[in-house]
Design goal:
The chain has 617 residues and is an alpha+beta fold. Helices cover 48% and strands 26% of the residues. It folds into four domains: 183 residues, Multidrug efflux transporter AcrB transmembrane domain (Multidrug efflux transporter AcrB transmembrane fold); 75 residues, ACT domain (Alpha-Beta Plaits); 83 residues, Eukaryotic phosphomannomutase, cap domain (Hypothetical Protein, Haloacid Dehalogenase-like Hydrolase, Chain: A, domain 2, 2-Layer Sandwich), CATH 3.30.1240.20; 167 residues, Gyrase A, domain 2, CATH 3.30.1360. The strands form seven sheets. Strands 2-3-1-4 form a four-stranded antiparallel β-sheet, with helices on one face. A four-stranded antiparallel β-sheet has the order 11-12-6-22. A four-stranded antiparallel β-sheet has the order 7-8-10-9. A hairpin with a 2-residue loop joins β7 and β8. α6 packs across α8 and α13 runs antiparallel to α14. It comes from Vreelandella alkaliphila. This is Protein translocase subunit SecD. Pfam families: Sec_GG (PF07549), SecD-TM1 (PF13721), SecD_1st (PF21760), SecD_SecF_C (PF02355), SecDF_P1_head (PF22599).
Length: 617
């Protein structure tokens, strides 16, 4: 019979709609602003401490929604977003160094929805608030670091072949080595040229003034710089993941810049310290008394600048060889970092320590920093900010090698548990291939995000209202079917975005508004076709059937082309464009389902089982 669905199809549509309703519900329960309190030494917090915090918050007019205790940590849910930073400061003042206070967003989804793995959509930076960083990669430092690594490897090669050299010098894109004779230089050139093909070689001077100058090729420079940016991207993504940020954005911008957006992060100082940290470690042997001065460097201790030690220039391993790291406390209660090396790093460490038992090994902490100064043009008076990069190196520890080390060992000599935790995080996430500097920093507060959400919801409501009124006036009963399908379409769209973990941004809300307008296009095509078939003399049942069947091809063609455009936008666009494309793509699919199947099911149930004398359309 015409306009009748089999039972299984009605049940399938019903199941899809029920699932969509369930997984869209968590969006009615937005996360609560909260502060998380944990003991700095890993012990359970005393309830008296929490009571002091609760009293202090009340005295400062900060309303508490709820307090929860789990796993030695306390979570204090707050009523207002604007109170979150003040609450953290108050709790920190009360507890001092006894505990660590961090900002948090606590889920408010009911437990029965959580049991079904239902969660709300993730909000983007423009809706949730957070920080935006624009970082610049120091390309000159990337070249210098590569040259220094090559210089160390070349010195080891020359020593193994017993070729005498006097000095190595690194300048911009070139590396030079001085030799005692022209014969030594020529022999060294043949050896180095075999293992280091990325240089252009030239001889300078003769006799005791002989030197070999090696200049990086243009192709190698481009490869080094491209690698530096890509490696920094990977490292920054790892660091952001360690921060636990939901749906961050870390992407390349131009030849040497990286954009980092962290939704929900309000502690910008901590985020900037972690994201922009350029710290790395070098493990070196302490120099012997008879080591030539050209092969040694003197460094001071970070926590005691009055102490210093002479170290070998050659590096055993760097932080790049660390596969995992965690912080803890030693037997004396002092902070330490437990390190595991990868296979290559463990081999190099074992080889170096096996033959140097009884000798001291140092852990050198290296950090790239910069200072900005203002230069004034004497002619125009224009002010220009000039960045002066510099490097800080300091010893963390200097310990005697008691036995051959392998893949696992520990670093002590750190000042505080916080420093140990941050160092472990940086080592886990990997070191930067080149220093990065902050070019731009913007903070979007949660209040602005709330305003964006209100405006976005208002735009959706206005768009929905206008479409509903038009469909009711134009198509009467069939307009009711279309409006019900439109509401179900919006529900399914939100449910799918929540299930996929997609991020909702302002452009995404624009995509939802556009989807609401496009969602009724298919119904308009179908209803107008039904009208046309009625004018052509078909019966009501035949007109309904022909309207859906003959409009199907046009609807699919129109939506497929729009879907292809959305896919292209997603593949080549940046963050905001991707958000718009994701919402639009999902909206197209859900609108086709509701327009072609859901409205057809409602029409079938209303008109398909009885004779109809007049059609209200």
């Amino acid at each position: 019979m015409l306009n009748r669905y089999p039972l299984w199809k009605y049940l399938l549509i019903l199941v899809i709609l029920v699932v969509g309703l369930i997984y869209s519900l968590p969006n009615l329960f937005p996360a609560h602003p909260a502060i998380q309190i944990s003991d700095a030494q890993g012990n359970a917090l005393d309830e008296r401490q929490i009571n002091r915090v609760e009293e202090a918050l009340a005295e400062n007019g900060i309303a508490i929604r709820a307090m929860e205790h789990e796993g030695g940590q306390w979570l204090i849910r707050l009523q207002n977003d604007d109170d979150q930073l003040n609450a953290r400061d108050v709790a920190t003042d009360v507890l001092g160094n006894e505990a660590t206070v961090a900002l948090n967003l606590a889920e408010a989804t009911p437990s029965w929805l959580q049991a079904l793995s239902a969660s709300p959509m993730t909000l983007g930076l423009d809706l949730r608030g957070g920080v935006h960083f624009l970082l610049e990669v120091d390309m000159d430092a990337a070249l210098t670091q590569r040259l220094e690594v090559n210089a160390s490897a070349m010195r080891e090669l020359l020593r193994s072949e017993r070729i005498r050299y006097r000095n190595t010098t690194v300048e911009e894109r070139s590396l030079s080595i001085d030799f005692a004779s022209s014969e030594d230089r020529d022999t060294a050139r043949r050896l180095i040229n075999r293992d280091f093909p990325d240089f252009e070689y030239s001889n300078e001077g003769d006799g005791r003034a002989a030197s070999l100058v090696m200049t990086l090729t243009d192709q190698t420079i481009n490869e080094i710089q491209d690698y530096a940016v890509n490696q920094n991207l990977t490292t920054l993504r790892n660091r952001v993941d360690e921060l636990g940020v939901a749906e961050p954005m870390v992407q390349r911008q131009g030849p040497n810049q990286i954009v980092v957006e962290l939704p929900g992060i309000q502690d910008t100082v901590a985020a900037k310290r972690i994201v922009g940290a350029t710290a790395n470690l070098e493990f070196r042997l302490e120099a012997r008394n008879d080591t030539p001065d050209l092969e040694t460097e003197r460094f001071s201790f970070r926590n005691d600048p009055s102490r210093s030690a002479d170290l070998m220039r050659d590096v055993i391993i760097t932080g790049d060889s660390v596969s995992s790291a965690s912080h803890s406390f030693d037997e004396n209660g002092r902070p330490q970092v437990n390190i595991n090396l990868d296979g290559t790093g463990g081999t190099l460490m074992n080889r170096a320590t096996r033959t140097n038992i009884g000798r001291n090994m140092a852990v050198l902490f290296i950090e790239h920093k910069s200072e900005d100064r203002v230069e004034v043009d004497p002619e125009t008076g224009a002010e220009t900010i000039v960045r002066d990069p510099y490097v800080e190196r300091g010893l963390i520890s200097l310990a005697t090698i008691q036995s051959a080390l392998g893949n696992s060992f520990r670093i002590t000599g750190l000042d505080s548990p916080t420093e140990a935790a941050e160092l472990a995080l940086l080592l886990r996430s990997g070191s930067l291939a080149a220093p990065i500097y902050f070019v731009q920093e913007r903070t979007i507060g949660p209040s602005l995000g709330a305003e964006n959400i209100e405006r976005g919801l208002l735009s959706v409501q206005i768009g929905l209202l206008l479409v509903v009124i038009f469909m009711l006036v134009r198509y009467k009963v069939f307009g009711i079917f279309a409006n019900i399908a439109l509401a179900l379409n919006l529900t399914l769209l939100i449910a799918i975005m929540s299930m996929l973990g997609a991020t909702l941004t302002l452009p995404g809300i624009a995509g939802i508004v556009l989807t609401l307008g496009m969602a009724v296009d298919a119904n308009v095509l179908i209803f107008e076709r039904i009208r046309e078939e009625l004018r052509n003399g078909l019966s009501i049942q035949q007109a309904i059937y022909a309207g859906y069947e003959r409009a199907f091809t046009s609807i699919v063609d129109a939506n497929i082309t729009t879907l292809l455009v959305a896919v292209i936008l997603f593949s080549i666009g940046t963050g905001p464009v991707k958000g718009f494309a994701v919402t639009l793509s999902i909206g197209i699919l859900t609108s086709m389902f509701t327009a072609l199947l859901v409205t057809r099911a409602m029409v079938n149930l209303t008109y398909g089982r009885k004779p109809v004398k007049k059609l209200w359309i």
